[in-house]
Amino acid sequence: MKIATHTETFTNPLYLESGRILEPYELKYETYGALNEDKSNVVVICHALTGSHHAAGQYEGERKAGWWDEMIGDGKSIDTEDFFVICVNVIGSCFGSTGPMSPKYPASDPYRMKFPVITISDMVKAQRILFDRLGIHKAHAVIGGSMGGMQALCFAIEHPNFASCHILLASTHATGPWAIAFNKVAREALIQDPAFKDGFYDPVEIKESGLSGLATGRMCGYISYLSPDSMDKKFGRNYVQTDGLYELFGKFEIERYLDYNGLNFVNWFDPLSFLYITKAINIFDATRNYDSLEDSLGRINSEITLISFSNDLLFLPREMEKIHQTMGNIGKENLSKYIEIESSYGHDAFLVEIDKFAHHVRDALKER
Question: What residues are labeled active site?
């Protein structure tokens, strides 16, 4: 599989939903496979909250491959022998695209909390501008899970002629209060941490000394990404063998797991990016600029495949099913397909239990 990473700089202003502009800005993206002569084999991959443009493959010296490597590659479900796959790091992220720690032109100091609030629609708009620059005016498909699914739905509604099909996994048409509540706890833990310094932290310093608020926020996220069943299976009531049961700060294995992942998070993800992207997720509502969900989905004129997971506690299966039912209510049932995958893993099943749904993605791509 041919893999390449690129960065594009844009000097024209990006007009945001908030009324503010981003100028200039950069987008980092990764491509896999080869673009055919008429540019008809493009598959766009949209990443989730802490994901990046590095969706597949492994560069020399890397500890692990891209976050969806099991799905993307030669002979895999998203087959790079057939498709030219592109994944763009969203604006607001910390992996190369313009975000809150990027320099605020014309000064060299970072935006920090002067960075504008962005939305999922803004992320998608920036990607469309990139694709136009690359001469890609039509894609075969747009695919994404969780926040990536929100982007895929935005593509379908707001850019209805761009792709022939859209595949959403473990997502929703509007972020509900349950998910917003998890994000609230995570965000509050970060904001209230004195080491956050109201957004004026030193990135090097927090990597060395830690940032307990961000670690706690990440722990909260992990709980929402899993399920009671998957925690029972993975950890049970196992206790850390070197800790005494009657030690006040002795730990169960699930506690050690949360500690490790929370404390490690600050080493690879920026605190302000976490705040801005969770804000974008909270804001997301595909009906916001329309009279109703029927009005919003009525703009869709391409096929959508909706894949939910039975034990997803963050974005419940019924949220995805509602999109399908609404498509039927407006006479577009022929464009919508809904699949619920039996899974005990939880929300992150779309990243982990590839074998349970990969064939559905392959079929959806082949049908077009």
Answer: 146, 312, 347
